[in-house]
Amino acid sequence: MPSLAENEVENKFLDTFKILLAPLAGVSDMAFRVICQNLGADLTFVEMISAKALVMDSQKTLQMMERHPREDILGIQITGDGPEIIGKATQLLNKHNFDHLDLNMGCPVKKVVKTGCGSALIRDPDLVYKVTKAAVDESKVPVSVKIRLGWDENSKNFLEVGDAVEKAGAVWLTVHGRTRSARYDVPVDLGAFDKLKKTLSIPVIGNGNIFNKSDLDLMIDRSNVDGAMVSRGALGNPWIFTSLKNTQFKLDIETWFSVVEEHLQLQKDVYKSESAGVICFRKHLLWYLKGWSQTRQTKERLIQITKYDELLDLIKNFVDFQISQPSSRAFRSIKENIESSRNFI
Ligand SMILES: Cc1cc2nc3c(=O)[nH]c(=O)nc-3n(C[C@H](O)[C@H](O)[C@H](O)COP(=O)(O)O)c2cc1C
Question: What is the per-residue pLDDT for 344?
Answer without folding.
Answer: 44
